[in-house]
Design a protein that fits this description.
The chain has nine helices and no strands. By secondary structure, it is an all-alpha fold.
Length: 212
């Protein structure tokens, strides 16, 4: 591979490709140097270290996912929006497993604030506008959707549903049906002193991928 024309953007995209091929945990400056057939030192004018490289890949993945999500949600509401956003995460994870893992890489507060992370939380909340939920239940629902989407995808990517019937796609569709039903019939607040019935508002944070 040619040694000329290296830029930070090119290195980050190459790192994202490496993550998809070998796993995000395998992405290092040394591995990227081998990919370009250059000395490690020559890359340090573009990325500070492996953490910086992984952070940049995480930012790329978050941006790509947010762009896909925004496009998928356009003109949709209710269950259609719920399914569209869920499918964005699942499809991206299957197409780009390394980048999907990168999207949940821990970012420092400044990087997180400047990332597309808040867009993900916003998209989930946009989906929930189709359901009659007020705070703090809306935040509870954001966390529920993130847990279900990404928990299912992680298990599926690991082959957890490959050796039994029914097909994982059938389960996925039924789970989305169940989530839609739950959101339309959200349980009432618990008794005083319970988590659901506690006073005070809960603000959702802009965590990676689905928000928290």
């Amino acid at each position: 591979m040619a040694r000329v024309g290296l830029t930070t953007e090119r290195l980050v995209r190459a790192g994202a490709e490496l993550a998809d091929e070998a796993g995000f945990e395998q992405v290092t400056v040394s591995a990227l140097a081998r990919r370009f057939d250059v000395k490690v030192a020559s890359l340090y004018s573009h990325v500070r270290n492996s953490r910086d490289l992984k952070t940049r890949i995480a930012l790329l993945a978050l941006e790509e996912l947010a762009d896909r999500g925004s496009a998928a949600l356009a003109g949709r509401a209710g269950k259609d929006a719920l399914a569209a956003l869920a499918d964005v995460y699942r499809d991206y994870a299957r197409e780009h497993p390394g980048r999907y893992a990168a999207a949940r890489y821990p970012l420092d507060p400044a990087a997180a604030a400047a990332s597309a992370g808040p867009r993900h939380s916003g998209m989930t909340r946009a989906v929930l506008r189709g359901y009659d939920l007020a705070e703090p239940d809306r935040t509870h629902a954001v966390r529920l959707l993130g847990s279900v989407f990404h928990g299912y995808v992680d298990l599926e990517l690991a082959g957890g549903f490959s050796h039994s019937a029914p097909d994982s796609q059938e389960s996925w569709s039924r789970i989305l049906d169940a989530l839609d039903s739950l959101l339309r019939n959200w349980p009432a607040d618990g008794p005083p002193g319970s988590v659901a019935g506690a006073s005070g508002s809960v603000a959702g944070s802009s965590g990676p991928v689905a928000g928290s």
